[in-house]
Amino acid sequence: MAKPKTQFVCQNCGTVHSRWAGKCDGCGEWNTIVEEDPMGGIGGGPGRAPKKGRAVALTTLSGETEQAPRIHTGISELDRATGGGFVRGSAVLIGGDPGIGKSTLLMQAAAALSRRGHRIIYVSGEEAVAQVRLRAQRLDAANTEVLLAAETNVEDILATISEGKRPDLVIIDSIQTLWSDTADSAPGTVTQVRTGVQAMIRFAKQTGAAMVLVGHVTKEGQIAGPRVVEHMVDAVLYFEGDRGHHYRILRTVKNRFGPTDEIGVFEMSDKGLREVSNPSELFLGERNAKAPGAAVFAGMEGTRPVLVEVQALVAPTSLGTPRRAVVGWDSSRLSMILAVLEAHCGVKLGQHDVYLNVAGGYRISEPAADLAVASALVSSLAGLALPADCVYFGEISLSGAVRPVSQTAQRLKEAEKLGFAGAMLPAASAEVPKGTGGRWTEIDDLPDLVARIAG
Ligand code: TYD
Ligand code: MG
Predict the structure, then answer these.
(1) Region (Lon-protease-like) spans which residues (predicted)?
(2) Could you report the per-residue pLDDT of 218-239, keeping only the tens digit for each?
(3) Is 165 assigned to a binding site?
(4) CATH fold of 70-277, please?
(5) Smallest Cα–Cα separation from 361: which of 243, 272, 262, 454?
């Protein structure tokens, strides 16, 4: 028999290499390639005879449809992020940095579901039963019927959850601790994680239970991260937040049964996570509106408007190369705005350090924040505070034009609701509400904005 061949798999992106290398060609990461056994996965060894195929009936696109059967947790921020609750027979991956609060969130979800009469099994591979119980006590979940197991072996877990009455939802915390007898690689490698996840997904599809898989994001790439199983599961949610801040965002990045870009917002407390139904109020909480360099951005997260403050500090530099530092936004986008300000508005920032910060540790991904960023920069440079009751949104192009963005009406409605009477928005914006009493100022281009702010 031929000597069993091994392969070299990048633990960051899963690219297979024929030999070991220091750097992965697939993702460019260093020191992420690990030797694995290719037959360790699903499908058995090389000696197996292939099974003869069986034809399945082809069908058309029209015909009967059905709504995915869902399990609602009653935690509305979580239900919103999952698109209306966990779907039976599907697998959801919840990723996030270690210590961000994934286990806490899922314990709370398990307790809420159990109180609604669902059978929930929580399999912890990271903590002993006593530790999980302690957490449950702190979260006020100890008096529920959630069933616990501390186990990491895939076959044992499957045997455990298949026994007795069928569970409605199974939580596996975390996929990195799973290991299977059928895979030879070390626990935590891509092969082991994939094998384990595949087995759990198969269980969900066969039994109709909802499967929730926890995955730690690994910066080092030494342990297989959630990225390598993203394509296998039905939905992927990331739990994010800044360690220095007390709120957390559950962000949908993939969902076969609902919309993506939805977010659920939570606030941390000693009794666990609390839902935040109006995130704008949280992000604008500690605002000092009289200071120059602060502009409120009216943003959108999926279907939900979020108001957040963008802060800029522009100061003469003492260095040869001025500093540019950004927190919560894209730094190349900042460079672009600075270049456009210089080229089209004569705002020279070559001798200035520029610092940009999004308040509250929030991260903005929308290009619609351009106008708010430009306003904050000009305001800081000019030393003039912006009107306290005004919001800003609009995308800036390289020509200096301000381009309309989507969902104008929702942004303005949220601003009005929170007491903002004015807005600077792109000219030719659709759906601008009329007759509401709001001062909606349409901005044609960046020179127009600079003239309005700096006079
Ligand atoms: P944990 O849920 O264990 O994080 P993860 O499973 O993502 O690694 O939470 C980390 C720590 O933070 C834990 O000691 C509990 C604490 N914590 C709170 O005290 N309150 C909260 O609301 C949350 C989310 C966590
Ligand atoms: Mg945990």
Answers:
(1) 353-455
(2) 765 445 677 889 999 999 999 9
(3) no
(4) Rossmann fold (3.40.50)
(5) 243
